[in-house]
Design brief:
It is built from 8 helices and 8 strands. With 263 residues, it is α/β, with parallel strands linked by helices. The chain has 2 domains: 103 residues, Alpha-Beta Plaits (2-Layer Sandwich), CATH 3.30.70; 112 residues, Rossmann fold. It is globular, with a radius of gyration of 21 Å.
Amino acid sequence: MPTVLRQVIHIDEEKCDGCALCVPSCAEGALQIIDGKARLVSDKFCDGLGACLGECPQGAITFEEREAEVYDQSAVVDRLKTMGLEYVPHSHDHDEGHKGGHAHEAHHAHGPGAFSCPSAKTMDFRTDTAASETHAETSARQESELRQWPVKINLVSPQAPYFQDADLLIAADCAPFAYANLHPDYLKGKAVVIGCPKFDDLDDYRQKLTAIVQHNNVRSITVMHMEVPCCTALLYAAKDAVETAGKSIPVETVVVSLRGDIK
């Protein structure tokens, strides 16, 4: 594969904590968490536009100019297919921007004309669920198992009485909508906090969860997150909180598919 002098990303492994927030920001699928660290899978997948810059809370991602493989759009398409993602051509000439290797100043679109990240991919389940509507109408009404308020990670108080001697459920915002039986299967008898690491500050989550663990005798933690890469940051935040607090608390992971199944 020919190489050229161009801009590609550089990941400082000392700073990277494996939070995975950078992974969905790379529409080409060039980033992957390997052995607990974000890695550039191959130079040929990095387009040099820099969409991942600014997504790392630790400041571990920068640009460097070096000899690297030429960006290969066809290879990206093949890689995305293996990941179950779609490729939609950019509205501008994508290849031209990479010949000089300095296209990182350009805007990296995430709307129409960009690759589809699974966390933002448009999917329509209406035809698949229409057959179940009659059954749903005749089913018994499910009572709420919620025992507290508020539930947002950023709003709860670490000293709230419902955290003391509690089994704690940390859930992604989307999980209750995707998994229909969350209340009886996972919320019953638990205290709960919810959040979305894609749009909130992960450091704030770590600090709040650490305070909850430090101030209370939390017996167990269940992290329920969606299958999309950015959502796994909830699990890292929970594990960091337990480690920082110096506690020994079992942490269970429950992954929900986009169709609402437990994976």
